[in-house]
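Thread: Modeling a multi-component assembly for a lab meeting

Hi all, long-time lurker, first post. My supervisor asked me to bring a structural picture of a complex we are working on to next week's group meeting, and I have zero experience with this. I have the sequence lines for every component (849 residues in total). Could someone generate the structure of the whole assembly? Inputs are pasted exactly as I received them:
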Amino acid sequence: MSLIKQLWLAILFTVTLASVGSFILSTLSSKNYLEEQLQTKNIDNVTSLALSMSQLKKDPVTLDLLLSAQFDSGHYRYIGLFDPNGKLISERVNAISHTKAPKWFTKHVPIRVHAGVADVQNGWQQYGSLVLESDVNFAYDRLWDATLLIALWTFLIGLFASYTGGKILRKILSPLNDVINQAKAIGEDRFITIAEPKTLEFKAVVREMNNLSNRIKQTVTKESARLEVLRYKINYDDVTGLMNRDYFVNTMEANLNHDEYNEGALMIFRLSNLAQLDEAMGYPQVNTLLRKISGALESACNKNSSLIAGRLSGTEFAVFCKQTTDEFVLANQLKDAITKAAEIEVAELTARFLVVTTKARKMDETASLFKVLEFILNLSSLSEENYLRVINASSITVTENNYLVEWKTLLNDALANKRVKLEHYPVVTCEGALIHNESPVRLQLEENGKWRCAGEFINWATQLNLIKTIDELVLEAAVQLLAQGANPLCLNVSASAMCDRKYIQKAVKLIKQHLQHPNILSLEVSEIAAFDHLSEFKHFCSKLKAVGCHVGVEHVGLRISRLGELHDIGLDYIKFDASIIRGIDTNETNKTLLRGLCMVAHSIGVQAIAEGVNSDDEIVSLREIGIDGYTGPGVKFQ
Amino acid sequence: MMLLICFTGIYATGYDFNKFSGLAKLRYGEEAYKNVLELQELITRLKSAPEAEKLKQINDFFNRKINFAEDIDLWGQSDYWATPLESLGRQAGDCEDYVIAKYTFLKILNVSNEKLRLTYVRAEISQQDRKVVLAHMVLSYYATPQSEPLILDSLVPEIMPSSNRRDLTPIFSFNDKGLWVGSSSQPKGDATSHLSKWRDVLMRIHADGIE
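Re: Modeling a multi-component assembly
Sure thing. I ran the full set together rather than chain by chain. Output:
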């Protein structure tokens, strides 16, 4: 039983006890008072009647009349005159008087009054004795009325006291709910802080829990920052802050091998006259120039989340787009941007760029892509002019075939007919048990046609504003599968769906309706979406965790330093991006980084999962590092 | 007859001599104490004596021990009903104080309450050849309910039948019948409530050790 209920019952008990007690006491004291008054009346009236009779001539008719007069004009139950031997001379009995008080009341609260007795003298002789009893029925009436009134008032006051008592209790205990919620949150590894309540005891508890939360947050933030520095040193170029060659290649490779990947573009920008600039401007000035160029590329990446940029060597910058795009247009835009950024005040000098771009298809060999591009660049550099070359020009025709209008028709048709299915890629624990199946969406654009992966249509769906519709269909399909008894599933939720309250409402409703054990459904968003829309992400998590689903963040890598911000959300897991995992068995620095990341994750009660695992050697290393689970092309589940 | 037996049973009077004599000594000194001892001897002697003897001895004892005094002089009140202890202690009292003392101690000697009445009388007495009318009180003794009462008076030392007392005219008589309720020896009602003079003096007698 809850504390508030127990206290309320205690109040109710006390009030009832006090009410019943005062009720009984007041009734009894009224009764005693009435008895006393009636007793006095009996004695006084019988004495004065006896006195009157003693003075009269003892004529029986006169005495009888006197008795009648007294009886009829007063309130009596009985008046009797007896001779000295106890024989009745005359009497009057009131038989018609009655009371409105019920029988049980007069039985349990009897008014006991004794008859008044007095002697009547005839000169020196005793004439007889008078016995007189007052009518008690009017006293019963009075007592009954008073009792009813007191009962009513006692009841009303009791009711009021219980009601206000409950109200006051609720007010006093209201901070307790916050304290409980905080304790629960901490129990679920959501290290939240709340305002300290005014009640002294609650205040002490909340202060300690706040301290705990803050300590955890600081630890996580500090540790993440330290790891970020480490990661940065390993993966980024000192001068420009862009990815270094290894990291860029890893990231790109991870993308090319990703299940959802279809087609993208790679472009290399070579600053062909670096040596000449170096000579003319000096080393520091050139570094500034390089930073301006990288800044232009970075701002392009920030605008378009499908782009990543890196510095391959002293003179070469690379940009990779992981979505289907018109690489000619993109390369041109970027070339203009960096040319503008690299404008030099010294008039006779300009930074000259050679640009080569190509489509990068799924499972393309990264090494050979780079090799071809570098070869073309080396050929081109001879001309020493600013130019842009697109190789593998056939891709442009493909794009041309897929006009936006056509995509709209195809997508709408596919969605309207729910030609949606979920793929299954297992995520397993180190012991080999299934955590869940990652379930990316497949769309069939034409009936009985080829099932297309997300990379093929996501760009178009985004442009056509159909992403949320796809998210909803995917969720419906997943819930249906789970309701039919499928293994635990994990869905990737797009940023736009995550930020959409309607989608969240719909998800909550669906899950409540169909899933008995909602924890078999996990919903995850990408790192970029989570950090770009942090408050929406927190709302999303709180709603879905309240229903009982698991929530996670995928592709964690670029923004490790912000991991501390997730300490109060109660995430169930984070998935580390394949770019960190790739080749982990041979990369000692990445091992150190990942070990630290796992520790941070565990300290806030979050499962650490590796993405993009390819080989058994990687699995062995990951187990040593202390990862909780992994997924990828090299992971099978029987 | 049933009524009579019943009342005798109920009003059998208890008497705590030790308390009574102790209070006398404490409040009124040696002489009062001696008087109480003397009364005690009398009671012991009279325990099994005939009722006529009891009446005579008690009447004489109190007529002898209590000197007549006005309430206003004695108690500072125009009409004060004193208990036997107070009357014996001060060795003074007016007519109703004699009557109360005699009534109380006759009851202690097992004279039935039913036979005793405190009677208001109109008394005509001669003082220096002039007739004076007094409001007076005497104790009446009825051997049977119908019989002529014997009068125990403080003005005339001798006990006489009422027919011999032409100077007295009875007005009203009473005893404590009907005041004691049920088997309880306590007057019914709250001790703090207002009491009549009669109930008041009965309460105080009780407090002096006479039940």
